């Protein structure tokens, strides 16, 4: 079973280097400063073997692919064996560093599955038992053996505190990060669930609208042909164009439900149709797009939602002006929509309980939810900022993966 990432093995390698340095210092102090007649060859041999293994383990831990929990257990098994070897040659069970087996079990418990933790505990018990039975007692030396044991216990305690504190703080930080990620996922799931329900209902409504739209088309044509009033004929023609837009949108909705069918959206046509629907809005346009550019249809829906929100905000403040900037920057579509409304009324942050709620009198509250869902799905970014002297500026950057140039 794979572990979450190679970070545990890297941490284990770093701790092993600390242990190797500490073991080397302990041997030097015991043999050179305290003149304890220890068998230096087995001790330095065990330290050298552990150092050579850690060189290999450090190289292996920097691979991108995660290792299995079994491999991590083998690392722990090497640590248990070397510790039993070193302690066995330097006093056995009377060595104040013999409780270090508990640290190995604690480290395994913080990162490995239960069965491998139990295997590490069993290996530690076997190592401790072998050390107790076959361990070599400390030879006689000039000094107080009891005081040496007390100092060793103090050093062992400090090392245990440091290792436990290091791993416990990392564990708490990881749990908090996991809680934040789960909160984001729950919020996203609640929003997407509402959007899916809306899409299902919209598909059914699109099927039902075909008949009334066809009837409205025929009626508008008859009015334009039979009426002698020029103004009424112009209104009927405009009505026919609006009905055509509605019919095209219904057909696009039905077509997008077919698997694999995605012809792309023409942003210039999207903007033209929006201006036809909102003729009272003065759209100030800047920037140019490449000719024959086709983008994901959801980008067109996002642009319409932002333009509608901006138009509504401007109208509520007594203005009819909306600014739009569009350009392509490398492989991204960069856009900005600015209104001349009253700005932020409350802190703007999307929450799942605000889905389908709107502060506008005739709003349905789906624009913000759809905008966030579109940006997240396409891997882009969207920011809102207060504009000067008034209004709100919405900027977005969206990758143009899957765009096409049609001749």
Report what the structure shows:
- By secondary structure, the chain is α+β, with helices and mostly antiparallel strands.
- A five-stranded mixed β-sheet has the order 1-3-4-6-5.
- Helices cover 62% and strands 10% of the residues.
- It starts with 6 loop residues before the first helix and ends with a strand.
- It has ten helices and seven strands.
What is the structure about, briefly put?
By secondary structure, this protein is α+β, with helices and mostly antiparallel strands. The protein has 10 helices and 7 strands.
Order of helices and strands: HHHHHHHHEEHEEHEEE
Shape: rod-shaped
How far is the N terminus from the C terminus?
52 Å
Low-pLDDT residue spans: 257-261, 346-358, 403-407
Q: Percent range for helical residues?
A: 55-70%
**Strand percent estimate:** 5-15%
Q: What number is the mean pLDDT?
A: 77
Major sheet attributes: 5 strands, mixed
Structural class: alpha+beta
For the CA atoms, what is the radius of gyration? 36 Å
- Annotation field: number of helices: 10
Total count of strands: 7
How are the strands ordered across the major sheet? 1-3-4-6-5
